[in-house]
Design goal:
- By secondary structure, the chain is α+β, with helices and mostly antiparallel strands.
- Helices cover 25% and strands 25% of the residues.
- The longest helix is centred in the C-terminal third of the chain and has 23 residues.
- The protein is globular and about 55 Å long.
- 29% of the residues are buried.
Length: 232
Amino acid sequence: MVTTGDEFTVLTIGLTVFQNKTMVVPIPGWGLNDLIFARTRAAIPAGVSVLRIPYNPAKFPPRDESKDTLKDRLFRDLNAELAGYMREVAKGTNCRHYIQVLNSVSPIGTSNYTVRGFGILNQDVVLGRRIYLYALAFIRIFDGRDFSVVRQSSALINVHHSLVVQRLLGRQIGGPYRELPAESFPTRPEDAADNPALRDGVRAMLAESLDKTLPLMLGVRPAARQSDTKER
């Protein structure tokens, strides 16, 4: 089940909050959901039947941020919430396991800002502009009987270092990203959807991260080092 891949964020972070700008651009033509399913199917051993379950966000009420307080988080049973969510999504199916791919979230360097899912970041720093294209996905595998989470991890290209280690090594974003020249940032955010270089860059990073992370999570090949399993 895919719950990501239909939006691209064009984000500018300036030296002051007044320079910050965000625009979310629909990208249905990029085919990211189809790519995610194809790479997931390729990671599953031959002979195993795979069912693609469509995700319908209209079935779920919007999240009430006012109820997401520290007190609420302390007393919420997140595992039970996830299990109930998956029961509703998977209703009418009977699979041994369910795989969910959704957006991951990462802080930007040591700042208080974050990026989520797929997008491009224009970061104004003291010494000039830095442009980053990123593709952040998170994977969960559920048991098909009780819908408990069996494994979960960010989709990573460098699977030998956890996200914590990558940050200590100076990585600006926790997950797949690449730095681009300044002229790569779209002059008009809405033009990003028709930019083949941005599309192909995101698709390449997403495919590589899924191809490296999914086999480890599915036990197809052993991990040299366990990837970060913290929910993003």
